Amino acid sequence: QVRLVESGGGLVQPGGSLRLSCAASGFTFSSYPMRWYRQAPGKERELVAHITNTGGATNYADSVKGRFTISRDNAKNTVYLQMNNLKPEDTAVYYCKPIGLYRYNGWGQGTQVTVSS
């Protein structure tokens, strides 16, 4: 079955950095674009970053552009999100998900990121 395991979250001060990881299994990882989403308390889930299946192109939400970097290692079936200069408004649960894998409708456990002084 499809499995997505996010990790790397934690409590950091404003201006700090975190690197999130998403370990994927149960599908041909290198065939699918991947995305990072986040959901803050009381808010809708939002798209944060996108990467093509090869890693050749990326896109970001305006709110994180210039601060976050999405990358992937297809040999390790893993997607990463490097988050720099974190702000309190980045506080959320972060999730990864493939795009176009229509047989999968679920979400992983997510990883909590809290930015606070």
SSE map:
Elements: E1 3-7, E2 10-12, E3 18-25, E4 34-39, E5 46-51, E6 58-60, E7 68-73, E8 78-83, E9 92-98, E10 111-115
Parallel strand pairs: 2-10
Antiparallel strand pairs: 1-3, 3-8, 4-5, 4-9, 5-6, 7-8, 9-10
Question: Could you give a quick summary of the protein structure above?
Answer:
The protein has strands at residues 3-7, 10-12, 18-25, 34-39, 46-51, 58-60, 68-73, 78-83, 92-98, 111-115. The chain is mostly beta strands and 117 residues long.
The gyration radius over C-alpha positions equals: 13 Å
Identify the overall geometry.
Answer: globular
How much of the sequence lies in strands comes to over 45%
| Overall pLDDT metric | 97
Number of strand elements: 10
End-to-end distance: 40 Å
Low-confidence stretches: none
Number of helices: 0
Order of helices and strands: EEEEEEEEEE
Strand arrangement across the biggest beta sheet? 2-10-9-4-5-6
